[in-house]
């Protein structure tokens, strides 16, 4: 990013729900840690170049110890002879206030970053801020926006949301990846204008692609509802408009903002217990009977374990020409408050069945000890109770007042666009059984124990059909694992998109790891692979045979 073309601010997003748990465990071992050490290794290479080119660096790599990281950056700068001014943002860490928490951090907005840059900082490191704040904070500094410039801030938040996952906006993790060369996609950048609109693009000569589709996919990622609540502004995702402005240039405009809510989200991680797993390989004939034999043989061993989950993945093929494709995988995951109940004694005993169980018995890994797993929860806290503080380059501590909330609160987003849509009925014209992915893209992800699946169409007729067809009931029918869980549908007509929130499908979140896909990253691709009756007129024409 520093060498590929012009740049004013370089941002880096280092934090996720799982990362906070990892940093919390680091801090238990050494109170001086708790920040992303990889950031320092990257700075060794790039700090001098950024200084030469006048590029500010803003990153949330401070994690649980932004002050410690700021000191480490100063030490690195002195060692390399680069005269940079370093500031940091703190106040998000509320761990001491939450009983039993490994970490508890409020999601701060960008105002602290803005203050640090206004004070002349070249490098700003933060703890837990919202991912988009890494972009909206610098934009507010550059254009000197006021806290109530809601539309401008909302536009910058939309741009920041597109940038936050890097190459996911340039063709990575993209439903239609085969259309572009995405072997080495370049990182995206945003050319932000004073009115808050932005062009998403990338440096010339870098791989991947920036299209309306890649930007749409990222806008739908890990969002819930048409209102995207943030500490500085509530961004109305249903007002976002995308315009193709040529090769690798997509404009985001029309974004409306509202005042933020009166509370901040606090992400809390705890050690939830201990887990272990064994994966049995079942080959050839009688797969179901072999799996049932193992389950029966381990019944007594699992007695008293708090949670034991079996899943059978039928990866086997009939009359397979390789042993691997003739095999299925039977996975046992055990969890318990005590490491002794799910430790090496249990996994060793499971593997000791080898000479007295199903024919062809083998497993994918040797017996291992129990590992701790984490639980993530989120809770609100009144904004004034969080001591958001900018620590300026000269050491001055500047309290950041919370953004003024809107009173009364805006209508709950669940009341808009969350209905089931029209009944799942036949479409006009002839139809054919085909995968949903033939006419729609999808992007999915996690928010604590919930998952979201964004689905979009590329044309007006496909959107009309998608909007009418993919109801909540249809969604549940296509993804049976969501049956019995609360599913909410949100409509984003400007993006020709629907966004589904599935509450509770991920249990206690990614760190508890009880599900095959614990972050729901592939839930959207499973949905695209499901078949339903699709109008023939919407399907792409078959390629001509040469």
Topology:
Blueprint: E1 9-12, H1 17-29, H2 37-53, E2 56-59, H3 66-80, E3 86-90, E4 103-106, H4 111-118, E5 123-126, H5 133-143, H6 150-163, E6 188-192, E7 198-202, H7 212-219, E8 227-228, E9 234-236, E10 241-244, E11 250-253, E12 256-258, E13 263-283, H8 287-297, E14 307-313, E15 327-336, H9 344-351, E16 362-363, E17 371-382, E18 389-391, E19 397-399, E20 431-435, E21 440-447, E22 450-457, H10 460-469, H11 472-478, E23 487-492, E24 497-502, H12 523-529, E25 531-535
Parallel strand pairs: 1-2, 2-5, 3-5
Antiparallel strand pairs: 3-18, 4-13, 6-7, 7-11, 8-9, 9-12, 10-11, 13-15, 13-16, 13-17, 14-15, 18-19, 20-25, 21-22, 22-24, 23-24
Helix pairs in contact: 2-3, 4-5, 5-6
Structure commentary:
By secondary structure, the chain is α+β, with helices and mostly antiparallel strands. The protein has helices at residues 17-29, 37-53, 66-80, 111-118, 133-143, 150-163, 212-219, 287-297, 344-351, 460-469, 472-478, 523-529; strands at residues 9-12, 56-59, 86-90, 103-106, 123-126, 188-192, 198-202, 227-228, 234-236, 241-244, 250-253, 256-258, 263-283, 307-313, 327-336, 362-363, 371-382, 389-391, 397-399, 431-435, 440-447, 450-457, 487-492, 497-502, 531-535. A hairpin with a 4-residue loop joins strand 23 (487-492) and strand 24. Helix 4 crosses helix 5 (133-143). The longest helix has 17 residues, at 37-53. The relative contact order is 0.11. The model is unreliable at 407-427 (pLDDT under 50).
């Amino acid at each position: 990013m520093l060498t590929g073309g012009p740049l004013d601010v370089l941002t880096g997003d280092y934090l996720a729900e799982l990362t906070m748990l990892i940093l919390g465990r680091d801090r238990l071992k050494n109170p001086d840690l708790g920040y992303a050490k990889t950031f320092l290794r990257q700075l060794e290479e790039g700090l001098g170049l950024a200084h030469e080119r006048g590029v500010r660096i803003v990153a949330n790599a401070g994690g649980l110890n932004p002050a410690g990281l700021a000191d480490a950056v100063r030490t690195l700068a002195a060692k390399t002879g680069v005269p940079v001014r370093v500031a940091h943002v703190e106040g998000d860490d509320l761990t001491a206030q939450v009983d039993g928490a490994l970490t508890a951090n409020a999601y701060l907005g960008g105002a602290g970053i803005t203050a640090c840059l206004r004070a002349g900082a070249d490098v700003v490191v933060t703890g837990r801020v919202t991912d988009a704040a890494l972009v909206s904070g610098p934009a507010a500094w550059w254009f000197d926006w006021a806290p109530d410039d809601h539309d401008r801030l909302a536009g910058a938040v939309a741009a920041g949301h597109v940038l936050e996952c890097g190459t996911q906006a340039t063709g990575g993790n993209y439903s239609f990846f085969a259309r572009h060369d995405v072997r080495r996609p370049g990182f995206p950048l945003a050319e932000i204008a004073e009115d808050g609109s932005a062009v998403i693009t990338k440096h010339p000569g870098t791989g991947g692609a920036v299209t309306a589709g890649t930007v749409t996919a990222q806008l739908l990622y890990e969002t819930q509802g048409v209102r995207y609540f943030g500490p500085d502004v509530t961004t109305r995702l249903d007002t976002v408009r995308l315009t193709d402005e040529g090769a690798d240039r997509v404009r985001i405009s029309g974004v409306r903002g509202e005042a933020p809510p009166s509370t901040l989200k606090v992400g809390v991680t705890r050690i939830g217990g201990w887990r272990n797993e064994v994966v049995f390989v079942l080959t050839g004939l009688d797969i179901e009977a072999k799996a049932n034999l193992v389950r029966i043989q381990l019944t007594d061993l699992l007695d008293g374990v708090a949670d034991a989950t079996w899943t059978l993945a039928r990866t086997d093929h009939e009359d397979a020409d390789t042993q691997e494709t003739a095999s299925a995988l039977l996975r046992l995951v055990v969890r318990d408050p005590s490491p002794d109940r799910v430790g090496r004694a249990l996994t060793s005993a499971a593997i000791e069945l080898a000479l007295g169980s199903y024919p062809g018995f083998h497993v994918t890994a040797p017996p291992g000890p129990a590992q701790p797993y984490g639980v993530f929860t989120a809770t609100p806290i009144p904004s004034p109770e969080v001591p958001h503080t900018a620590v300026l380059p000269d050491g001055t501590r500047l309290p950041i007042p919370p953004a003024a909330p809107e009173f009364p609160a805006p209508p709950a987003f669940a009341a808009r666009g969350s209905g089931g849509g029209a009944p799942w009925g036949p479409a006009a014209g002839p139809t054919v059984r085909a995968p949903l992915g033939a006419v729609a893209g999808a992007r999915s992800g996690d928010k604590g124990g919930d998952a979201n699946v964004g689905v979009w169409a590329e044309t007006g007729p496909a959107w009309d059909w998608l909007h009418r067809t993919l109801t909540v009931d249809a969604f549940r029918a296509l993804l049976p694992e969501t049956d019995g869980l609360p599913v909410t549908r949100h409509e984003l007509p400007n993006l020709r998109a629907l966004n589904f929130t599935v509450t509770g499908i991920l249990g206690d979140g990614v760190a508890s790891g009880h599900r095959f896909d614990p972050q729901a990253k592939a839930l959207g691709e499973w949905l695209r692979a499901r078949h339903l009756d699709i109008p023939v007129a919407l399907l792409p024409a078959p390629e001509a045979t040469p």
